[in-house]
Amino acid sequence: MYTITSDEIRTIFLEYFQKHNHKKIAESSVIPENDPTLLFINSGMAPLKNYFTGEEVPPASNLCNIQPCIRTIDIDEIGDRHHLTSFEMLGSWSFNNYFKEDAIKLAFELLTEGLKIPKEKLYATVFMGSKELNLEPDTESIEIWQKAGMDRSHIVPQPFEDNFWGPTAETGPCGPCTEVFYDTGEEYGEAYTEGGEFDTRKRYIEIWNAGVFMQLNKMSDGTYEPLKFKSVDTGAGLERLTMTLNKLNSVYEIDSLRPIVDIIKNQCTSLSPESDIPESKINILSDHLRTVTILLAAGAVPGNAGRGYIPRKLIRKCCTILAKYKVDNFNYKEVINKIIEHYNKYYGHFEKNRNQIFSVFNKEVEGYSAVLEEGTARIEKMCGGLTAISGKDAFVLVTSYGLPFDFIQEYAAEHGMTIDKEEYDNEIKHHKEISKIGLNEEGGNGSSLPALKGLAENFAKTGFTGYEELSCKAHIIGIIKDNAEAELAAANEQAIIITDKSCFYAESGGQIADTGTISAGNMQLEVTDVKKAEEVFFHFAKVISGEVRVDQAVDMIVDSERRTKIEANHSAVHLLQKALRIYLGESVKQAGSLVTDDRLRFDFQCDKKLEADVLDLIEATVNEYIRRDYVREVQETSYEQAVKEGALAFFSNKYSDVVRMVSFGEVSKELCGGTHIASTGKIGFCKIISEESAGRGIRRIVALTGSEAVRYVQEEIKLLNEIAAKLKTGKKQILSKLDTLGTKKEQPEEAAFTVMTKEQTAKSTLQSSKGTAYITREYPAMTDEVRDEAIRVAELIRGVVCFYSIVDDKVQITIAIDKELSKSCNANGVIKSALAYLDGKGGGSAYLARGSGNNAGGLKDMLEGFKTLF
Ligand code: ATP
Ligand code: MG
């Protein structure tokens, strides 16, 4: 029935780009990581943003993949031929490699040869330039399309609004783009003639943004400068390609959507035979349930604000449609199961999260049934018997009773009433900024920073005193309650409090906010969260007793025990960062961190999993720094001076003239606005509890400190004791006991021994020390610091360390051995064996030896040799 299936298109696309030297990369979750500016991943390039700015290095110059996307901006288009809220984007990219010429050629070839589209069916739009913005027309692309084989009459110049992309912020990379359209034929409208209207809503369907050509940098004064580092971003909609290539009327007829549409249609007609539910509504249900399933599979939780609002809105819309057409007892399960079955073929997390998807979905639908019931009663009460619903009433029904505006509109239509939509829109606009910062169900806040920013303009900056003190006297200068500014808040109410100064740390730089109390006389507020925007602090609080008023003089007290735990975790992050740099190299770059009172999380760029022994070393080093009890020092200085002193600074463009440098002895210096423990000894103990991937090229370490770390270790040991008791043996005998119980123990690799038996030199000088801990690692140069580090690490692991560097084909090595161990395993002996591979010379003491050799080619065998010796 289909001339080409969506599966075939997937394969043709990926194989084509891989054949043309593009590396296929994994897709990202639709919920963005570390990007608060984006609601959901809405294009293939969104998760790769840092590759375009140069902040991160891509794994290859040319990439491709298939990325699930969510476009909330298209919600109102749903029901037309070609817009979906969720779709899969076929993407290809080139960073600082090929540009317009190759991009257009690749696109044309794939479309006409790979996908066999007759070229008469294809049209390309190009940027026509803008005199006003002083931007040249993209004549280059016109020429390249023509050269590739496209007729000039099929190339359509379009204005800035249509064919110029970016930047995503005020400034940054941007450029013209060229988009490919498919002509779906005369039954869908007039043919395009040069200079006439190019109808992209019905007849000509955009299938591929075949090249966003990032070639300009928008400056803060609004001018554009050429970019040094050019790149190409392309994206094609899989559903639209499947639709057009099969000459279908809409995306709802394609192979992956048709079965969903059919299930919904069958159910609606059998559950409510009389109600004539239109096809457009069936399509909306299919689209929305698909998107909801994708979001829930990715871990989204419906809520009133931010990311949670979208699945809630979509689910409510589906319920409202079904209620309107009197389809009772709709079997969502059958539909969602079909969606899971489809997506699980490509993305394994759908099946894994099946239970979660259903439990969240069912709870939301049940909750909404209650809302609908109460809302219908309320609407009857407020508007029954009237001929019009005022904008204000509609606003109250939406915001206070959770009824979707569509529902109210339909109610009005059914009862022959009008709605004052203009008044409603004004109400919404008026309250928009404030309503965004409303408290959410969990008592936290659903505030988004842009919303707080708007509000911050109304208040003076808050003086932060929390570096020096944990309590202070202050004045209340603002209260926000029920989404509006208020003069007072009474017992049991929730409110946002703004004061002239504050000792509460507001969430920033990965450190969570302080909690505590604000009080005056019998009035007491419990502060649960603090956010800041434009230096104004917003304290999210609940009134426990009395009444809080603007202008009141208050005492602010931070929960000091909790603050100390947060500080211990934050300082441990700095020490961890230093230890990581020792073992993984100076290039370790922070990718994000989270510091709370019960744990710390540190994300950093690294391609591979850390070996368990390296992780042990890192943990041991952090604990040694803790024992050395370095005193915290804070210095305010210029950015340049701080960097000169070796401070770690990662996001250099974000620093102001005066920066805050936090140091612990000589081991750690970082630019940091967070709060820190007075001396490292107070951290007590740090335990790494996990190391895992946190996205492409990013590893995540989670660790505990102080009493949390102690408790964790105790629980682990308790578990071990219990296992030993179950096996009726001692802890240390568990493994041998398991062996005797028949568990297969891995044999040491024989292969390494065979390599080595040929290298008699190395073996003969040493007694066998199999089982000794050892580590080998390359450094840029063999400095005294590296030598000291080698001695320290050898003691830490009670083993053998070989650090080496290669400069101009010359290898330098340092061997350090734990002093106790060196009585039986001499560093002089080890280095002689090692140098035999390098044609080198050297020597030293029993625990430290150094040497160098000219045969860098022997290094690999030398490192292999280590494997067989220890
Ligand atoms: P349109 O103008 O048709 O909404 P767009 O310009 O927003 O498309 P791009 O942002 O360039 O689209 O996205 C690249 C490709 O992704 C498009 O060429 C199209 O094939 C696909 N696409 C975009 N939006 C949707 C959508 N809502 N549903 C399905 N596919 C889409
Ligand atoms: Mg669009």
From TrEMBL:
Chief place of localization: cytoplasm
Needed cofactors: Zn(2+)
Coiled coil: none
Residues annotated to bind Zn(2+): 570, 574, 672, 676
Enzyme Commission no: 6.1.1.7
Subcellular location: Cytoplasm
GO cellular component: cytosol
CDD domains documented for this protein: AlaRS_core
Main EC class the enzyme belongs to: ligase
Highest taxon in the source lineage: Bacteria
Keywords attached to this entry: Aminoacyl-tRNA synthetase, ATP-binding, Cytoplasm, Ligase, Metal-binding, Nucleotide-binding, Protein biosynthesis, RNA-binding, tRNA-binding, Zinc
InterPro entries in the cross-refs: aa-tRNA-synth_II/BPL/LPL (IPR045864), Ala-tRNA-lgiase_IIc (IPR002318), Ala-tRNA-ligase_IIc_anticod-bd (IPR018162), Ala-tRNA-synth_IIc_core (IPR018165), Ala-tRNA-synth_IIc_N (IPR018164), Ala-tRNA_ligase (IPR050058), Ala_tRNA_ligase_euk/bac (IPR023033), Thr/Ala-tRNA-synth_IIc_edit (IPR018163)
Swiss-Prot/TrEMBL catalytic activity: tRNA(Ala) + L-alanine + ATP = L-alanyl-tRNA(Ala) + AMP + diphosphate
Cited Pfam families: tRNA-synt_2c, tRNA_SAD
Keyword GTP-binding: no
SMART domains associated with the record: tRNA_SAD
All residue ranges annotated as the Alanyl-transfer RNA synthetases family profile domain in the record: 4-715
UniProt GO BP: alanyl-tRNA aminoacylation
Comment on bound cofactor: Binds 1 zinc ion per subunit.
GO MF: alanine-tRNA ligase activity; aminoacyl-tRNA deacylase activity; ATP binding; catalytic activity, acting on a protein; transferase activity; tRNA binding; zinc ion binding
NCBIfam families the record matches: alaS
Job of this protein: Catalyzes the attachment of alanine to tRNA(Ala) in a two-step reaction: alanine is first activated by ATP to form Ala-AMP and then transferred to the acceptor end of tRNA(Ala). Also edits incorrectly charged Ser-tRNA(Ala) and Gly-tRNA(Ala) via its editing domain.
Family named by the database record: Belongs to the class-II aminoacyl-tRNA synthetase family.
Entry note about domains: Consists of three domains; the N-terminal catalytic domain, the editing domain and the C-terminal C-Ala domain. The editing domain removes incorrectly charged amino acids, while the C-Ala domain, along with tRNA(Ala), serves as a bridge to cooperatively bring together the editing and aminoacylation centers thus stimulating deacylation of misacylated tRNAs.
Protein name (record): Alanine--tRNA ligase
Gene name tied to this protein: alaS
